[in-house]
Amino acid sequence: MAITDIKAFAHLTEADIEAFGRELDQIRRDIEQSLGQRDADYIWRAIRIHRGLEAAARLLLFAGRYRVPRLAGTVMLAAAKSIEMMELGHNISHGQWDWMNDPEIHSTSWEWDFVGPSGQWKHSHNFVHHTYTNVYGLDEDLSFVVQRMSRDEPWRPIHLIQPVTSLAIAAGFEWAIAVHDWALERRHTGVPRGQLRSKPNIEFARKIARQLGKDLLLFPALSGRGFEYTLASNASALLLRNLWSYLVIMCGHFPDGAEKFTTEHMATETRGEWYLRQLLGTANFTAGPVLAFMSGNLCYQIEHHLFPDLPSNRYSEIAERVRALCDKYDLPYTTGSLPTQFWLAYRTVCKLALPDRLLRRTPDDAAETRSERKFLGIRSTWQASDPITGARRGLRTALAATDSSRRSAGRGRWFRRRWITSIAGER
Q1: The pLDDT value given to residue 424
Q2: Can you give the pTM of this predicted structure?
C-alpha cells in the first residue's frame, strides 16, 4: 500500500535526507535573494496579456451572430480564463508575489475569476494539500473529490463508474473544486449542514451569484440580440477552461511515479523528509514557453510543490538544479510528455475502478501505489554505493533493479511454460 517509511523507500540514510533538504533550502535562499525587476515585469506582463485577451474576446463576442468572430472570441476567452486561473489566481493566491508589497497582486487581496471564494480555496489547497501532499487520510485532494486514486482507498461499487464520473468532473472542474473547498471550510469551522446562514455558505453563495451573473447574464445581455450566442460562447469558454485545468492537474498529481504516503510517516517527518515527499509525490510534464505559461508553469509541479510560494517564472531554472540533485542522490525525477502523463493518470482512474482482486500487480508494487515493501527481496543485499564506481545508489537504482528482476522472472515463467508445453506435446 502507501509508503510508511520514506527513508527505506528512497534507499537514503537520515543524513542523506537532511543533506538533501539543506541543498533545497539553499536553492530557496538563492532565488529569494535574486528576486527583482525582471520578476515584477513578468507578472505585470502576464496580467496585461490576460486583460488584453479578455477584452478582445468580449469585443468579438459582441458580434456573436457571425460564426468566425464567435469562435475566435470563445477560444480567446477560454485562454484568458485559463491564464487568470492558473498563472494569476493560483500563483498569486500562493503568495508568490507578496514580496512586491503591491496590494493589487497580493495573496490577501486577489479574488480570482472562479466560482469558489479565494479564501476557502487557500485553506484547502495552500494549507491542507501542500502540507499533507498525497498523505492518505490527510490530503483531501488525494481522492480528487470522489475518485479512487490509490489502493489505500477501499473499493466500493460506486467506483465502477469513475471512468465516466471523471469526465463529468473534468467538464465541471470549477464547480468540483469549489464545492470541495466549501465542504472542507464548513468542516474546518465546525459549521453544521443545516446552518444555512453561516459565513462559509454566504461567501459561497455570493461568489456563485457574482460569477454566474457576470458570465451568463451581464455580458450576454450587453450583446443585445446576440444574447444566446454570447451565452453559448461564454459557457463554451468555461468548459474549455475546465477541461484544460483538469488535464494539467491530473498530469501533475496522478501519473505513474507520483507516490502516496500513510499518516504513520507523518509522526516524525523532518524538513528533509517533507521535501522528499513533495519530490516523490508529484510529477512534471514537458512544455515549451507557451505551454508552460498557459499551464501557470504547473508543468513544473515538482518545483511548485517544493517551493509553492516562489514566483512561477523561476521554476524552469529551479528545475535544472532539482534535477541535478536527483542525479546526485540517485532519485527519480518523474516527467513525460503531456499526452503520456495524462494517459497514465487516466489509466489509473480506469484501473482502480475495479476491485483489487481483479488487478494483476500487488498493492505494494503497482504503478500507481508503491511502498517500501516492494523492495523486501533486495534490501538484505543492498549496498549504499556501487562497489565498482563508488557512485551513490538510491531509489532510482533500486527501482531499476526490481524492474529488471521482474522482467527476468517473467521471461523465466514464459520459458518454463514453453518447456512444459513441448514435453507434453512429445508425450
Answers
A1: 47
A2: 0.91
